[in-house]
Amino acid sequence: MAEYRAGKAGINAEAQARINSKYSDDIAAETLQWIKLLTGEPADTSGNVDNLYNVLRDGTLLCKLVNAIQEGSVKKINQSTMAFKCMENINAFLEAAKKLGVPPQETFQTIDLWERQNLYSVVICLQSLGRKAGNYGKPSIGPKEADKNVRQFTEEQLNAGQHVISLQYGTNKGQQTGISFGGRRQM
Question: Are residues 37 and 31 in contact, defined by beta-carbon separation less than 8 angstroms?
Answer without folding.
Answer: no
